[in-house]
Design goal:
The chain is mainly beta. The chain has no helices and 32 strands. The two termini are 36 Å apart.
């Protein structure tokens, strides 16, 4: 989404509040400080810095497996690794140099879909060597927040509300064509309610299930169990604040266990109300007992043996939970915007000024 509430005229006869993201890379500290877990005997940097030859700010992140990952960001920049992060290819999508690519979803080392906040979606099928524009909104007020695929054919993109309902674009042909979902199947937004595009993860899908987190005047999580044909809103327990606060990211380990994180990006050090968890598929959300250390824009979650492991990341650092989001302990103070797990123990994170990092979750002290 965008992140401050303003009213902009649309091409229609009504005006709608827009959430614009005023998150600035200048808020990201140049110095990286490290924090230790209480149980750690020595202070070690767990996030391993990786080198991508760019200073673009990244918010979109998609991890295909432990070797293949993609990220997208400012100046139309897309990066890709096929060797687990040791090396990165840096590309710029032609015609997108002035655009912010807040969301990306990759299916392989060759196929990826990128959404620009300015209502455009591109696809590559050759590892980023060429890109084709697959969707361009005719309405200049369209603002895209997230893009996800449930399989190689079926995908969904989320945009800020249009005409009182969240914009949902759908594809059933692998992103070749996109169309607006019927109005009746799009979640109804409250006044001044929208979604955040701080990490491209305000929308999550898992099989036929989908979840959509909101902020602004209300901080809710919409749940769908029928591939997005209908949605039910549920309170998130995360406080809302006009233009700056609410749910920024949702992630699920399975169809029952999920986590939502957020807070207030204008008050990044405030830890109260920054995380919630669910054990019933998103019907009810319970505040974390011990919260992350501040505003968090991205969360990743996976089942690791008997544990529900999660990492939350934001501009003041990252935190880890081993109990499905009930309790969090500091990981370190490296600022990131987005985080995702690979299928095993590896996690990747991206942030401002070209920051990319990798973490082996097995190294996290207990």
């Amino acid at each position: 989404m965008r992140t401050s509430l303003t009213a902009r005229p649309s091409s229609r006869t009504w005006r709608i509040p827009r959430l614009r993201n005023r998150l600035r890379s200048s808020l990201v500290p140049l110095a990286v400080s490290l924090a230790c877990l209480p149980s750690a005997t020595a202070c070690a940097q767990l996030w391993e810095p990786l080198k991508a030859a760019t200073t673009a700010s990244f918010r979109g992140l998609s991890v295909v497996d432990d070797r293949v990952a993609w990220a997208s960001g400012t100046r139309g920049t897309v990066i890709r690794t096929t060797d687990g992060g040791d090396t990165w290819t840096v590309d710029s999508i032609p015609g997108a140099a002035a655009l912010d690519l807040r969301a990306i979803h990759a299916r392989s080392g060759d196929v990826a879909h990128v959404a620009a906040t300015a209502g455009r979606i591109w696809r590559t099928t050759d590892g980023g060597r060429t890109w084709s524009l697959r969707y361009q909104a005719t309405d200049t007020t369209v603002f895209l927040d997230a893009i996800v695929f449930r399989d190689d054919r079926n995908g969904m993109a989320l945009g800020d509300p249009m005409g009182g309902r969240f914009l949902l674009l759908v594809t059933a042909d692998g992103g070749d064509t996109w169309s607006e979902a019927p109005a009746g199947s799009r979640p109804e937004a409250g006044r001044d309610e929208a979604a955040f595009a701080a990490s491209g993860t305000s929308l999550a899908v898992l099989g036929s299930h989908a979840w959509l987190g909101t902020g602004g005047s209300a901080a809710r999580i919409f749940r769908s169990t029928d591939e997005g044909r209908s949605w039910t809103p549920h309170p998130s327990s995360i406080p809302a604040r006009a233009g700056a606060g609410g749910v920024f990211s949702v992630a699920f380990a399975d169809t029952l266990h999920g986590i939502a994180v957020g807070g207030d990006y204008e008050r990044p050090d405030a830890a109260s109300g920054t995380a919630a968890f669910t054990t019933d598929g998103g019907k009810t959300w319970v505040p974390a007992v011990t919260m992350p250390g501040g505003y968090r824009s991205g969360v990743a979650m996976r089942r690791a043996g008997d544990e529900l492991l999660a990492i939350a990341a934001g501009t003041t650092g990252s935190d880890v939970s081993r109990d499905g989001g009930r309790s969090w302990i500091p990981l370190d103070a490296v600022p990131f915007n987005s985080v995702q797990f690979g299928p095993s123990s590896v996690a990747f994170a991206v942030g401002g000024r070209g920051r990319v990092a990798r973490l082996d979750s097995r190294r996290i002290p207990r």
